[in-house]
Amino acid sequence: MTIIAGTLVENDGKYLLMQEAREDIRGLWNLPAGHVETNELVQDAAVRETLEETGYSVELTGVCQIVDCKVEDDAFVVIVFTAKLKNEPVREVDPAEIMDVKWLSYDEILAKEKEIRNKTLLFGALENARSGIVAPMELIDIYGNND
Q1: What angle do CA 112, 14, 19 make, to 5 degrees?
Q2: pLDDT of 65-85, one tens digit each?
Q3: Domains of the chain with CATH codes
Q4: 72: which residues sit within 8 A by CB, 6+ positions away?
């Protein structure tokens, strides 16, 4: 099973998206997201991936989407957190992985529908967050810290 962590970062009515550079998905827009590494907490992975893929440091504020899917011989769980900016970009992104990083309004994202990677995930997270369907961070219980 693969676990993916991502963020939906909103600031002044715009959402942070990045444009993929990898050859098979080149030019497609996506939420900042990536694999949770061995011995990494899912929320730490979401913050790390956002920093790596956009240059922005964020603070997670809630959970807006959980997707469970089966693909061929593997299963994926994707957890998307809502997040807010901690500061302006603090690092450059790797041009081999990321072509562009932009703040887009809801209408601008809708207009790019054909250029979106993982449409169900992105639009699901976006619609949930816009509708207030966001679970608090307290929903996540980290076992072993207080046992």
Answers
A1: 45
A2: 999 999 889 999 999 999 999
A3: 2-132 (3.90.79.10)
A4: none
Angle at 105 between CA 25 and CA 84, to 5 degrees: 90
Provide mean pLDDT across the span 112-138: 96
Residue 83 CA to residue 61 CA, distance in Å, equals 5
Q: Which residues contact 70 (CB under 8 A, 6 or more apart)?
A: 76
* Tokens describing residue 115: 């250029």
Q: What is the pTM of this model?
A: 0.94
- Read off the tokens for 37: 């590494």
Task: Note the residue count of the chain.
Answer: 147
pLDDT confidence band for 144 (50 / 70 / 90): low
Beta-carbon contacts of 129 under 8 Å, excluding residues fewer than 6 positions away, are 8, 10, 64, 82
> What does the pLDDT read at residue 141?
83
What tokens does 126 get? 């976006």
Sign of CA dihedral 94, 44, 41, 3: negative
Q: Nearest 5°: CA angle at 9, between 5 and 10?
A: 155
Which amino acid is it at 129? A
